[in-house]
Amino acid sequence: MRGFAPQAPAGVVMIRPHHFTPNPETAADNVFQTSDGLRTSREISEAAYREVTVMAERLRDAGVAVHLFEDEGTSTPDSVFPNNWFSTHAGGHVAVYPMFNRNRRGERRADIIEMLKARYRVQDVIDYSGLEPDNVFLEGTGAMVLDHIGRVAYAARSNRTNEVALERFCTHFNFEPMLFDAADADGRQIYHTNVIMCVGTDLALVGLDAIVNPARRNEVRERLEETGRRVVALSHRQIAEFAGNALELRGARGRFLAISSRACRSLSAAERGEIEAVTPLLPLDVPTIELAGGSVRCMLAGIHLAPRASAGQAASHVVAKPVPA
Q1: Quick one: 311 exposed, middle or buried, by C-beta within 10 A (0-12, 13-18, 19+)?
Q2: Please, what are the domains in the chain?
Q3: Where are the membrane-spanning stretches (predicted)?
Q4: Per residue in 159-185, pLDDT tens?
């Protein structure tokens, strides 16, 4: 096991929505999105609010620095998934991304970037959102699963993952792009890479069967194993239960894997044992959030930046509200 883990952030940004609902604009290509006809819209939004609150508290209890921001608006139904619009990188770098759906572009928030600058050492912010008028999109660490150790950006091709934007990102941030086609059991294109794979420090969970080209599938597995990682192959059924949508974090007692309770239940006892031999599991209940087609990993924008000495860990636990327009 490695000591310091650049793969596992010790801090995250989360968004707590006050009016959560599955996004009607993303339903066409997000095959993991579902509806709930048994609860009212108010019941759904209240349940989502509670799920985010409890998840943030459990991560803080585990020793993760959680920066929790509120979204009190009604025009950004997917704001609970901030990892799509920005990412942070060692050396003080921040990237801001172009979003495919118009109602997702409003999720970008200056107050979050300003918080990062105030509490962490930020050298530069590279903003790719200007690519949107050219219909060029790259939805952050949803579109890409980044191996910070092997410097590989794994990416499933889709309308949310443009090859030109991927190449540009990799040039700026020193990653090697590994692009592939991915589909679910019915042959429908996978919309985001992070629903089929999770790359941790010593472990990778990957829906290998979802990678369409067998040669590319083997190449992905080989690249992961070259770095010494144990690869756990996930089935299409487990991918549909969000078993690939997990994130390794670093807490007070070391690294652990944040994963949804639903995803955890989809793993066999042998698979859970294989994972926990490497990294402890922290199951989190987010069934309402999962209606929107994303899970625990999508809810977490990891912070790979060095904290400012004056900020301190305690200061990162405040609940921040958006700056009024």
Answers
A1: middle
A2: 11-320 (3.75.10.10)
A3: none
A4: 999 999 999 999 999 999 999 999 999
